[in-house]
Write a structure and sequence with these properties.
- With 474 residues, the protein is mainly α.
- The protein has a domain at 259-474.
- It is built from 19 helices and no strands.
- It has helices spanning 2-17, 22-46, 60-86, 92-111, 115-133, 139-172, 181-186, 193-211, 219-226, 229-256, 260-282, 288-309, 312-342, 353-356, 358-371, 378-392, 396-422, 439-453, 457-469.
- 58% of the residues are buried.
Length: 474
């Protein structure tokens, strides 16, 4: 029952939060976060059997995503307490309830094993997070919300079609097993390869829309920039991972069926397209939250590219998955401090961050260095494994495009960060910084550094299990 309780608990508290006043609704976020983190750790330690096997399963890749979601939500909920106190959000009960339902649906994704349960859970993340994007109820946020719902709904419809095509591949291959990822992976050789290839393409495009892969990424910059910073941190830090999980599990079936070269090539193409698109748009960004959103598109491209490369690249992709969540969530929370302090999202209207908000500057500049792939942060190690995997597999041209595009992204990112941090156009008055809106970012960045120097054995073994299940290795 512990498996199902992990997503049922925030679902129930989320429903309750819609009817609570702000004095009770705010503390419910971190309280649920603590309880959820405790349940997630219990899953790591005991790995119990689910109450509904075939529909839910505790898998290595699911555990990785779950522990990241749980840790991030706990820290984001603490930050949200201060953010709600300082911001002008009117309907806090809707914000609090939607945040908890969002946690529930994302958790459900990580534990889903049945193909249709996975599809339902990913669609539910769209419905639960849409009110968060519309929190400020402006014209821009309304447009961003509709774009998010419509684009992702079209994508999820394509993923549904891909899921149906898998059942056709089962019928033609006369495979009589549950329609679950684990059962299909074990019997992948018997599935019809033509229909399985078609299913993978539709699922990749469908879930890739939610993941933010180019050219299906159009909803992401608007949604992430218009949502309140705590919601942006979850959208970028963990929602994108949930969509990737659907692609990862489908790719496991492809690899087990002997079609890994087909799926890997497509993942590499979409990954490089996403990195190139981010590099193109990030150079001319005028808003720092949109800049961070395009950085997320770049990192999702890196993860897709590494997964497609195979070998050490898969290990690097999972490292990037973990560290991107930690670092990008920290950056979006820090952007919330900048927005509250300066009252604008425009880069040209900021400046002198190092002098006016020194604690926020440390978190912001540290996050920039980390997401850009500087040591000792984990993105550096992950990207190194991906590049080694590309050279090892003979993809020299792809590796060259990969490296060049990341250099362009760094140049564009660095230019904007320098303006925000050191430009002297703005006022010299210091801006008050609250401790509860600073230390969650520091904790996230320090966790990324800590995992580079010492990774718990259980975490390492779980990553290796996930890597080997998809044909990766050293």
């Amino acid at each position: 029952m512990v498996v199902e309780m992990v997503f049922l608990a925030p679902f129930l508290t989320g429903l309750i939060a819609f009817f609570l006043p702000r004095t009770l609704g705010r503390p419910l976020l971190p309280l649920t976060g603590v309880f959820h983190l405790m349940l997630s750790v219990m899953l790591w330690v005991k790995r119990p059997s689910p109450l509904f096997p075939g529909y839910f399963e505790v898998t290595p890749e699911g555990l990785l995503s779950l522990i990241v979601i749980s840790l991030l939500f706990f820290l984001v909920s603490i930050y949200a307490m201060g953010y709600l106190r300082e911001s002008t959000i009117r309907s806090e009960n809707i914000f609090n309830g939607s945040m908890l339902l969002f946690l529930s649906t994302m958790t459900m994704v990580t534990l889903s094993d049945h193909i249709m349960v996975m599809w339902i859970a990913i669609e539910a993340t769209t419905l639960s997070s849409a009110p968060l994007i519309f929190t400020y109820r402006s014209k821009a946020s309304l447009e961003a919300t509709w774009k998010y719902v419509l684009v992702c709904s079209v994508g999820i419809a394509m993923a549904l079609l891909g899921s149906v095509l898998i059942t056709i591949a089962m019928d033609i291959g006369k495979v009589n097993v549950p329609v679950s990822f684990s059962a299909l992976t074990l019997n992948a050789r018997q599935l019809d390869p033509l229909w399985l290839k078609a299913a993978f393409v539709f699922i990749l495009v469908g879930y890739g829309t939610k993941m933010g892969l180019c050219p299906m990424h159009t909803w992401l910059p608007d949604a992430h920039s218009e949502a309140p910073s705590p919601a942006s941190a979850l959208l970028s830090g963990v929602l994108l991972n949930c969509a990737y999980l659907g692609i990862f599990k489908t790719n496991k079936i492809m690899v087990a069926a002997g079609l890994g070269d087909f799926s890997g090539t497509i993942l590499m193409v979409f990954g490089l397209m996403s990195i190139i698109a981010a590099a193109t748009f990030i150079l001319k960004q005028t808003e720092y939250k949109r800049m961070l959103a395009y950085s997320s598109i770049e990192n999702m491209g890196i993860i897709a590219f590494g997964t497609g490369i195979g070998g050490p690249g898969v290990y690097g992709a999972l490292l990037c998955l973990i560290h991107h969540s930690l670092i990008k969530s920290s950056l979006f929370l820090t952007s919330g401090n900048i927005l509250l302090g300066y009252g604008t999202r425009l880069i040209e209207s900021t400046g002198s961050l190092a002098r006016r908000m020194p604690k926020t500057f440390v978190a912001f500049f540290g996050g920039f260095a980390a997401i850009s792939g500087f040591p000792p942060f984990g993105i550096f190690i992950g990207e190194l494994f991906i590049i080694l995997g590309a050279f090892k597999s003979g993809h020299y041209s792809a590796a060259g495009i990969f490296i060049f595009s990341m250099c362009v992204v760094f140049a564009g990112f660095a230019k904007q960060v320098m303006i925000i941090s050191f430009d002297d156009k703005s006022s010299r008055d210091k801006i008050l910084e609250k401790q509860d809106m600073i230390w969650p970012q520091y904790t996230l960045l320090l966790t990324s550094v800590f995992l580079c120097f010492w990774m718990p054995d259980t975490l390492y073994r779980t990553i290796v299990e996930a890597v080997t299940s998809i044909g990766g290795g050293f």
